[in-house]
Amino acid sequence: MTPVSLAAPSEHLLRELTPQVLGAVIRRFRDFAAAEDAVQEALLAAAVQWPEEGMPGNPHGWLIQVASRRMTDHLRKDRARRRRETAVAAELDQLAPAVDRENENGHDDTLILLFMCCHPALTPSSAIALTLRAVAGLTTAEIAHAFLVPEATMAQRISRAKQSIKASGVPFRLPTHQERTERLRTVLHVLYLIFNEGYTSSAGPELQRCELSLEAIRLTRAMHNLLPDDSEVTGLLALMLLTDARRTARTARGGELIPLTRQDRTLWDQRRISEGVALLTAALSMGSIGAYQLQAAVAAVHDEAAKVEDTDWPQILALYDLLKRMSGNPMVVLNHAIAVGMVHGPSAGLELLDALDADGRLRGHHRLDAVRAHLLEMAGDHRAAIAHYGIAAGRTTSLPEQNYLLTQAARLKESLPRDID
Amino acid sequence: MRFVLRLPNEGARKSANQKEQKIMKYILMMNPSKANMNCDPIGAWPKKDIQAHINFMIGLNKELRGSGEFVSADGLAGPEQAKLVRAGKDGTPITDGVFPESKEFLAGYWIVDVESPERAYAVAARASAAPGPGGAPLNMAIEVRQIMGGPPEEFV
């Protein structure tokens, strides 16, 4: 599909309207692929007509109408062809019930579309691709570029995802109250993965991928506008903003990674931080606490320390205590050990790491060695720290992290007294 | 500021356990050395066996494109044409031949974008079972290595 280019304000509006229009057309005609083509044609028509004839009074309704007309044309042709072949006479009205009037603002349609794209039958990578395509309105080429795969591969992934949804037979409507919690969790997880994919790769030669984080923030913000009372949606948006606030401080000019403890905190985006803190405060007052809110709270505590020495580690420890009770995730246990090390001293943290060794789920994981090296360095055992930085460097699959770990080992080696040869 | 926290509920506990999943790229390398393959080199096979082998490889690539996992795949020119290159004093290249009979050499590779290491192993196993002389599976060893990516989150 060709991206439609327009003057900036209408382009912004079109991006916001696209998922709503697509949602409405799918709801009416129940065919994902055909609806997408029809909406694309409507967008193209808008790009040609609006600059000449002016923006219609109700752009949302205009687009739905044009897209529906295209759909109807296609169906009619299709039906005529089929009638010639098999003489099946299905009434067009039956195929295309009227657009639901109570849904005029289109917001529910965006939400339904998001629920469809984050369908539990899809693998995470398919759900991510489909969400970026159908809800965020990125082109297949843009998505392929962001994930560093050929465009044909991404096109195939998206088309398979659509087929899976069609095959699942799940109707295009808001999930029932029962399904909703489960489905919402999947949607949030997909948004979280999109954010992470952008944020964690925003180092080195892949700087352009931070667009993915911004896209995730945009979608989560839209989700928050639709469900303002959901504490985990609010918590996730807060977590993204509070994390993204540190983006520019996170990489050096050459693309090297700068860990939290060494970042230039004046580069942190204070607007993002205050928005994140406000959202988090609101989320925490809504009732039940979830993992996104707790992670956001950890991020907020870091963000609020003007100097690294000011970090409120006891509060971070308390937050990780809660997270640990909520989840058996060994990464949380590992972060908890770091917090213990910062509050009660490195040997207390190292003791917890021994327990993680025995647990086995993190055996051979580079992060366990990296944390051990860090705590050993804090404890003054530089030789052992060098050894563990080295092991961690050999085990990580992240290039910037490997560079960082190797540099840490080299830095400590230089501080050692010279061996007598 | 201090955040006032209430105890988490059951649903929140579940969502905290969601598995972290990242899409991973792997390179699958084919090293058809003598030690790795219990048969003659492909050049010595009958024509129909070579053809069957090539068709299998084309089919495998098509399959990977169809599943949305294909990143790239290439075969490399034979080791007879390979050169070892070093920079000379002024940076000019000094080339030397390679001695294929004494070394492992890379004949071709696939790069795939998959959801788990297990899936990469499954693709490698398919490639390993490519037909050899007489159509019997070669069962050659395929080296699977993860391609390094960006840093993970919550970097310490």
Tell me about this structure.
The complex is a heterodimer of chains A (421) and B (156). Among the domains of chain A are: 8-97, no CATH class; 327-416, Serine Threonine Protein Phosphatase 5, Tetratricopeptide repeat. With 421 residues, chain A is mostly helical. Helix content of chain A is 71%, strand content 0%. In chain A, helix 2 (32-53) packs across helix 3 (59-86), helix 9 packs antiparallel against helix 10 (210-226) and helix 9 (177-200) runs parallel beside helix 11. Chain A is elongated and about 90 Å long. Chain A has 20 helices and no strands. Chain A has helices spanning 8-29, 32-53, 59-86, 92-95, 107-117, 124-135, 140-146, 151-168, 177-200, 210-226, 231-244, 247-250, 270-284, 291-303, 313-326, 330-344, 346-359, 366-378, 382-395, 399-415. Helix content of chain B is 25%, strand content 22%. A four-stranded antiparallel β-sheet of chain B has the order 2-5-1-6, with helices on one face. Chain B has a two-stranded antiparallel sheet with strand order 3-4. The chains are: A mainly alpha (421), B alpha+beta (156). At the A-B interface, helix 6, helix 8, helix 9, helix 13 and helix 14 of A face helix 1 and strand 2 of B.
